[in-house]
Amino acid sequence: MQKKEINNNLRLHIGVFGRRNTGKSSVINLLTGQESAIVSDTAGTTTDPVRKPVEIPGLGPVVLIDTAGVDDAGELGEKRVEKTLQVVKQVDIALLVFSGNHFAGDEALLAKLFQQYHVPFLLLHNKSDQTPADESIASELTERYPVDFLDFSAKTAENLETLVLLLQKNRPGALWQQQPLFGDLVKKGEMVLLITPIDSEAPEGRLILPQVQAIREGLDNDCIVVVLKENEVDTFMRTSNIQPALVITDSQLFGNIDNIIPPEIPLTGFSVLLARQKGNFEAYLDGTPHIDRLKDGDRVLIMESCTHHSTCDDIGRVKIPRWLRDYTGRQLEFDIVAGLAEPPRPISDYALVIQCGGCMITRKQLLNRIQSAVDARVPVTNYGMAIAYIKGTWERAVSKLRIE
After folding, report:
1. Total tally of structural domains belonging to the chain
2. CB–CB of 168/58 below 8 Å?
3. Tens digits of residue pLDDT in 226-237
């Protein structure tokens, strides 16, 4: 299979963390080869996290994230620090930057969070042109943390090549071994039918990302890809005499399409495939049937991972809450969070968490996003799997995807 171009949500995300004035922004600028971040001697120059997509020789396409100093002070400073700590859950690799051989509580807090969220990190002692790393401190830190340590100067570019090599070494292998959407379910020459409605949430003139990914994956696997709107499916199945090897539909159409596609033909949804590709699929399989156990007064958390203008037919904000209430007959309460924002309540307050497909975020970001619910034993599912359950097509939608 040919190597595919990696889009932003599959790029390696590298976060740069540390105190104020340790040279984090200078490290970013050196890696990008341009003034991507503002550099100043004034403490607290970087406020909100700044993301810069870039190509780095030896690493390929990455997103570098410059964060506010973890020692920022004051009311605004506390909010900046909160945003910095949230970024920890969004990165694939972290650079913990410190200088002047000063490694104390703030750095230890960051290291603890990296370990908690399984983020590989490097210890980068910056400004070595001013103060070289003390060998005893370097030895103590590498004994405390089994990670790589590098004495570095963003000003002189000392050890830049070594830094890139260490980033290569610590790059998570799973990021580059992306689980296919459906390529392992079909064979060369087989026909895959994609049912893609054009509704109010589809971007004007374009398809949504999972539909584009499915078309590309079908072509990459030398399949015959047929794309239809929902109102053409019945005619196609009656007149073409072609039996698809797999039918993939928008999850909202499960009920209608289930009645059209013969039961012997595998049928699933774009969001269900995303659940297997990027999410905690086993947790979703276990959590989805908990829909039947919802009670009056239960609170459900709906987690979008992108931000968009809500419409009157919004899938997460309008349709899923309505379908859940109708299906269960229960008086349910809903909280909705967008982007990578934190829930408004403790995760244990929820009886169910429903995560979107996550097409606009990385697998690491999606897994970390639902991990607190998994740890708290709160049932989790995703849009497509929840809809399949509500529409009565649950077993059909997941049967071919279950892990043996």
Report:
1. 3
2. yes
3. 999 999 999 999
Whether residues 52 and 110 share a domain: the answer is yes
Closest CA relative to residue 106, chosen from 14, 23, 24, 19: 19
Q: How far apart are CA 121 and CA 115, in angstroms?
A: 9
Verdict on whether the full-model pTM lies above 0.85: no
Query: How far, in Å, are 19, 100, 110 from residue 77 at the CA level?
Result: 12, 23, 16
Distance CA 301, CA 354 (A): 6
Could you list the residue range(s) of the whole structural domain that residue 395 is in?
283-399
Structural domain contains residue 143: yes
Of 352, 364, 172, 181, give the one whose Cα is nearest residue 272. 181
Q: Output the pLDDT for position 50.
A: 86
Q: How far is CA 373 from CA 87, 181, 321, 370, in A?
A: 18, 25, 19, 5
**Residue 14 sits in a domain of what CATH number?**
3.40.50.300
Residues 61, 13 share a domain: yes
Structural domain contains residue 186: no
Residues 169, 172, 173, 175, Cα dihedral to 10°: -140
Residues 218 and 324 in one domain: no
Q: Which residues of the chain have pLDDT under 50?
A: 1-7, 36-40, 42-46, 175-176, 309-310, 312, 404
pLDDT, one tens digit per residue, over 201-245 is 666 677 888 899 999 999 999 999 999 999 999 999 999 988 999
Residue 185 domain-assigned? Answer: no
162 located within any domain: yes
CA atoms of 181 and 214, how far apart (whole Å): 7
Tokens 């209608």 -> residue? 256
